[in-house]
Amino acid sequence: MTILLVFFLLILLSMQGAQKISMASGTETFVSKDSKLYQNFDHLYSNIFGTDSLVVMVEGNDVKSVDIMKAADRLEHQLESTEGVVGITSPASILMKINSRTTGRSKIPETDAEIKEIIDGNPDTFGTLVPDNTHMLIFVTMARSISDDQQKEIIKVAEEAVKFSNFPPSYNLIVTGEPAFMIEMSDAMSTSMGSLLGLAAIFMVIVLSLVFRHVRWKLLPLPIVLIGIVYTFGAMGFLGIPLSMVSMSAFPVLIGLGIDYAIQFHNRIEEELHKEGNKSKAIIATIKHTGPAVLIALTMSALGFFSLFTSTVPMIQDFGKLLSIGIVMCYLAAMFVGVVTVYIFDDVSIKFQSKKGNKEAKPTETNPAYLSSGKPKPSLVEHLLEKLNDFSIKNSVLILGIAILLCVAGMYADESVGVETDTNSFVPQDMPALLDLQHMKDVMGGTDALNLIIKVDDTADPEVLKWIDRFSEHETQRRHIYSASSIVPLVKELNDGTIPDNRDEIEAIYNEIPESQKDQYVYGKNMLLLNFNLGNAAADIKTEGIEELTNIVQKDIQWMQAPPGVSVTITGHSVVLIEIMGALTGGRILMTYLGLFLVLAGLLVVYRDWIKALAAIIPMFIVTGWSGLVMTYMQIDYTPLTATMGALIIGIGCEYSVLMMERYFEEKSHVGDPLQAIHRTIKSNGAALLASGSTVVGGFAALMISPFPIIKDFGTVTVIDIALVLVATFLVFPPLIVLMDTWRDKRRETQALQTKANNVKGADTQ
Questions:
Q1: What is the pTM of this model?
Q2: CA 290 from centre of chain
Q3: What are phi and psi of 360, to 5 degrees?
Q4: 83: which DSSP letter?
Q5: Do 42 and 27 touch, CB atoms closer than 8 A?
Q6: What are the two backbone dihedrals, phi and then psi, of residue 365, each rounded to the nearest 5 degrees?
Q7: Which residues contact 349 (CB under 8 A, 6 or more apart)?
Q8: pLDDT digit string, tens, across residues 182-233
Q9: What are the residues whose beta carbons fall under 8 Å from the beta carbon of 127, sequence distance 6 or more?
Q10: Is 662 within 8 Å of 607 (Cβ atoms)?
C-alpha cells in the first residue's frame, strides 16, 4: 500500500507538470537554434524583417473602387487599437498618403477612376496589396512576442471587425495567414492526440482480450501503462519538451513498449504463482528473472533511441527524449504498480474463493479454482506458435536465406525512396485554414523566396542601391526567379524611374514611403532586404532545384561584387528547407546504423558474448532492410516521423529478441539441449511476446486513422514494420539462435576433445 500511495502522489505531481506542456510548430522544430542557418534566418531575417501577419483578403468584381477602399479604411480603424497589433498595411491608407502628397487632402479619392489611376500608376507600391482587379489584401502585423492566446484573440477581433466594416454583400472576405493556419493546426493536433490515445486504448483492449487470455485480469496491463504515460506527460512539462507533430507520436510507441513491460511482469508472476503456490516466492522469482531481462531489453531500446539525438532536426531529438524518458516511467510502473496490483488482486481472489467454501485457498497446481481461472490448457495461439517454431527449425537454411536476400533488396530499394519536406502536406488537406492560406498564395502567385540580407554602412548609399538594382535585374533573367522586391523599386517609382545620386535625396524619398512598406526592406541605417520570388518552388523544382538555384545566386554575388563594406547573406524558408532535406536524408541513415552499433555494443557489455549479442541484433537488422521494401512498395516518402523508423525498429524489436534470448538461455540451463530450449521458450514466453507485439500493432493502428497525413503514414508503416518484427522474432530468431548456439556447442566439444587428445598425447610422450 505504501508503494501504491507513493505512485499515486507521483500521478498528482505529473498532472501539475502536464499543464506546462507547450505546442511547437515553427521553424525551430526543424532547425536547431544553435545552428548558423537558424541564427541567420531567425535573428537576421525573421526577427527584423519577418512579421507575423494576419491577412484579410477581399475578393469581388472590382476592388479598385471607392466603396471598397472606404470599407477597408473602416476595418483598419477598428483593428489598429487592438492590443498586440503593431501595424496595418492597407491600400486605403497608402492611397490617402499618396493623395495627400499630390492634392494636399489626406483622404480617399472621390471617384473610382482616381483610385484606379493611382493604383495602376504605382505598381511597385500596390503590386502585393492589389494583385489584380478582383483581389485586395490587408496585412495586420502582430507583435512577435505575443502568446498563442493573444493571437487567437486578434484573429477573433479581425473576424468580428470584418462583419462591421460594411463591405458590399457581393464581396467575399477571408481572414487567413500563417498565424491563423498555425493556430488551427495546433488545435487540431491537440484534439487529434486525445482521440488517438483513446482509440489506441480501445484497440489494445480488443487485442488483449483476444491474445492475452491465458492469465487472470488480462486487461490490467493497460491501466498500468497509462500510469507510465501520465508520468511521461509530467516529465515532459517539467523538462520543457514541446509537443510537435513528431513528438506527439511518441505516446503510441510508449503505450506499445510500456504494455510489453507490464505484460512480461504480469505473465511471469502468473506463471510463478501457478508453479510455486507461494506469493512471496512468486514475486521474488518474477523480479529476479523478469526484472533484469526487461531492464536489459529497456536499455537496448534506449540505446537504439539514443541515435535519434544525432539528428539535426529538433523535433526528432525531442522524440528521442520522450521515448527515453517514457520507457523508464513505464518500466517503473510495470515493476512496482503492476506486480503489487497482481499481488493484491491474487490475495483478494483467494479470500473470495475461501468465502465461497473453497478450502484450498492457496493457488497451487492442484487448485481447480486457479486452474480454471488462471492457467488454462495450451491455447490455439500457443499451438500455432509451436507449429511455426517447428517449421522454422526444420527449414532454417531456407528461411534465413530468404530473410537475408529480402533485407539486401530492401536496403537497395530504400535509396530510391523520396523525402517530403512540405509542411503543408503534413496536415489534413481539407483543413479550412490551409485551404484559405493556399487560396491566398494562389492569388499572390506563390510565396517561396530567397531572402538576401544586405549589411551596409549606410542604407541611403546610392552605390548600394544601384548595385541592388543591377543585381536584381541580372538574377530575374534566370529561370525560376520570377521577380525581385526591395526598397529600390519604391525609390525609383518616386523619382521618375531613377536612383538619386546623393544620399540626402534618397533620405527624402525614404520619408515619403509609408513606414509599413519601408520597414519591409530597410532596418535602421545598416541593413537592407532583397527578396527573389521563386513562385511555388517547393512543388515545382523541389529542394534539389532550390539548392542548385541558391548556389548559383551565391556564385553570382561573388562574381558581381557589391560595393566595399557590403556583405550579403542568403536565408529564408527555402534555404531552411534545404537543411531539412539534408538532415532527413543523411540523418536517418546515420541514426539507423548508429542505433545498431550502440545496441550491439550494449549487448556485448552486458553479456560479454558475441553469440548472444549477434543473435539479438541480426533479426532486427534484417527488419530494417525489409522496411525499405515496405516504403518502396507503398510509395510513402520519408518525413520527420518515418525517418525515425530504423531507430524505432531497432529500439522496439531488440526488446523482443532480448526477452526471447533471455528465456532461451534460462531454459537451456535446465535442459541443456538447444532444440528443447527453444521449444520451451516458445511454449512459455511466445504467447506473452505475441500479445505484446499485437498490442503495439493495435496502438499504432490508431495512428492510421489520424487526419494528419504525416501521422497516418507513420502509423501505416509502423504497423507493418512491427508485424515484420514479430515475424522475425518467431520465424528468424529461433533457427538463428539454435544454429549459432549449436555451432558454439560443437566447437566447444571439438576444442575439449582436442585438448583431451593433446593431454593424452603429452602423457604418452612422457
A1: 0.73
A2: 32
A3: -90, 90
A4: T
A5: yes
A6: -65, -20
A7: 216, 363, 373
A8: 888 878 877 887 777 788 778 878 877 776 666 778 788 888 888 999 999 9
A9: none
A10: no
